[in-house]
Write a structure and sequence with these properties.
heterodimer; A: 206 residues; alpha/beta; two-stranded antiparallel ribbon; 37% helix; B: 368 residues; 5-stranded mixed β-sheet; 14 helices; globular
């Protein structure tokens, strides 16, 4: 990603905040709810914002439609060559708003990369049990490709390719980044009721 | 050596005080008042609200072969374990997960109910109910009216955990009852504890109107009562007077009732007045008769709810009370509610209408 690009993601946003703002203090302070935090303590751990980084959204799938529309359009309107990265998970991929977003992006040829972080589980429900199609790169009227989300170099090259694709006026793109969640979804979810120990162990070893 | 010991003990004392302060800050803002009266006689068992709700759904699935339960992650029991064991008992075709799409869950439930099945849809948190809002308001609520009675989805019950929990923040603490109360055609119900939850949920499921059942999530485990094991229902649209008095009428629902019960105790002790406490239980339709009769008796009315003040359900209550009981009122109707701001994370203790704010409003009311 470059300076001019914007991004937004879902609630698991701590790493993104560090990346986009470079301020660990802002991040830690925000999680602790202090005034010196990136959102002045009002957002808490899920709602952290920084320059060109629009959070931090708890309502799953809403961020894909919510901010990206304006952001991606603003890039196109301003002609600054920027690209918007809208990240969401496999759980969110079945929200109606996401499909509405795809349609508008293609219709208006917006410089937007939709990144589906597929960790195979929407909290407690596996992707195969929640999605009729687990091909999250979709690729119907919007081209998409699959990336090994656990491989840093692959991610970097894929992002470069995506930026090039969008800035050359080819319109939106979808990337499915396959990854894995080692522990439960949140503090109230021990992650033992829908996974087996062996499965997690095997993944960790990879 | 001696000074080192003193410094250590002073330090230890500071740590102990800090931990104790933290515990006070982190502990809940209310004291739970269990129901002592049982709606039916017979065998009872100790249950918390989550277990009572589980029991109600178990009874429904057992007695009604068309009943189905669905929602996000309900297969393993759901995030609050209200559906625990139900898939094992009744099978995957009756208790199943849906994809993450609230609009889909509501729409699917409406269709099922219209087709004749008893549909119990679980929305994981009431804060997530808004994608389903159009389905509930425009479809579920209006189906019977617009078809002239030919079709209806009364067999639909949508359950969602609502309310403050201490650490929920913006999207795990909301109380959306007011949005739904504005929709003729729906029923909106909020229980205050296990006995109420079981009876009200069974009523909602059997009621021939689509119901939104909002369960205060903080009460799932903290509220325990001796709940009758048999099948029983509690009437919808009827409020319950929990405490009788003549000085003021305190109205609330859900978790807030327990705050008001404590405030009534404080009022008796510190102000020497006996207050009447009413649990609305049903928000839509609400029991105007019980409330107005009470206010006509006491002359003073205080309404409290967690949802923001402006256009919270308290506004509707206040408007009706002043209209029906005007000549009996000794003071303006008072509302103590959440502030008009998104539900905060760290500022939650300041946001909630806790017992101190309610007591202060009550004192003003009584001394008006």
């Amino acid at each position: 990603m470059r300076e001019v690009d914007t991004a937004l993601t879902s609630y698991r946003c701590h790493a993104w905040t560090k990346l986009m703002s470079g301020s660990v203090l802002g991040l830690l302070a925000e999680v602790a709810g202090r005034k010196s935090g990136s959102s002045r303590g009002k957002g808490g751990s899920m709602h952290i914002y920084a320059r060109n980084f629009y959070g931090g959204n708890a309502i799953v799938g809403s961020q894909v439609f919510d901010d990206w529309a304006g952001l991606a359009f603003a890039h196109k309107y301003r002609g600054d060559g920027g690209v918007t990265f809208a990240l969401y998970g496999d759980g969110a991929a079945n929200q109606g708003q996401v499909f509405e977003a795809f349609n508008m992006a293609k219709l208006l040829t917006l410089p937007c990369v939709f990144v589906c972080e597929n960790n195979k589980y929407g909290m407690g429900t596996s992707a195969s049990r929640s999605s009729a199609s687990t091909e999250y790169k979709r690729g119907d009227y919007i081209p998409g490709f699959w990336v090994d989300g656990m491989n840093v170099l692959a991610c970097r090259e894929a992002t470069r390719f995506a930026i090039e694709h969008c800035t050359s006026g080819k319109g939106p793109l979808i990337m499915e980044m396959e990854t894995y969640r080692y522990s439960g979804h949140s503090t109230s979810d021990p992650g033992t009721s829908y996974w087996s120990r062996d499965e997690v162990k095997a993944r960790r070893e990879k | 050596m001696a000074s080192l010991m003193t410094r250590n003990s002073v330090f230890a004392g500071k740590i102990a005080k800090y931990v104790s302060d933290c515990t006070k800050r982190l502990s809940s803002h209310f004291t739970y008042y269990p129901d002592n009266e049982k709606p039916v006689t017979g065998e009872t068992t100790k249950m918390n609200m989550m277990q009572a709700i589980n029991n109600a759904m178990d009874i429904t699935l057992k007695d009604d072969p068309t009943a189905v339960l669905f929602g996000e992650d309900v297969a393993f029991g759901g995030v609050f374990r209200c559906a625990l064991g139900l898939q094992d008992k009744y099978g995957k075709d009756r208790v199943f997960n849906t994809p993450l799409c609230e609009q889909g869950i509501a729409g699917f439930g409406i269709g099922l109910a219209t087709a004749g099945a008893t549909a119990i849809a679980e929305i994981q948190f009431a804060d997530y109910i808004f994608p389903a809002f159009d389905q509930l308001v425009n479809e579920a609520a209006k189906a019977r009216y617009r078809s002239g009675g030919q079709f209806e989805c009364g067999a639909l019950t949508v359950r969602a955990p609502c309310g403050a929990v201490g650490h929920g923040g913006l999207y795990h603490s909301q109380s959306p009852e007011a949005y739904f109360a504005h929709t003729p055609g729906l029923r909106v119900v909020v229980p205050r504890g296990p006995i109420a939850a079981k009876g009200l949920l069974l009523s909602c499921i059997r009621e021939r109107d689509p119901c939104v059942f909002l369960e205060p999530k903080i009460l799932y485990r903290s509220a325990t009562e001796e709940v009758p094991v048999e099948d029983y229902t509690l009437p919808l649209g009827k409020a319950q007077v929990l405490r009788e008095g003549d000085a003021a009428t305190l109205i609330g629902w859900g978790t807030q009732i327990h705050v008001l019960l404590e405030v009534a105790e404080m009022a008796e002790k510190d102000l020497g007045v006996r207050c009447e406490v009413i649990d609305l239980m049903s928000i839509l339709p609400w029991d105007e008769d019980t409330v107005c009769n009470s206010v006509k008796k006491t002359g003073r009315c205080l309404i409290a709810h967690e949802a923001p003040l402006t256009s919270g359900f308290g506004a509707e209550l206040a408007a009706t009370v002043q209209e029906e009981c005007f000549l009996h009122l000794e003071a303006p109707v008072s509302r103590v509610a959440g502030w008009d701001a998104p539900f905060p994370h760290v500022f939650e203790p300041f946001y909630l209408p806790d017992k101190w704010r309610c007591f202060s409003a009550l004192s003003d009311l009584v001394c008006y």
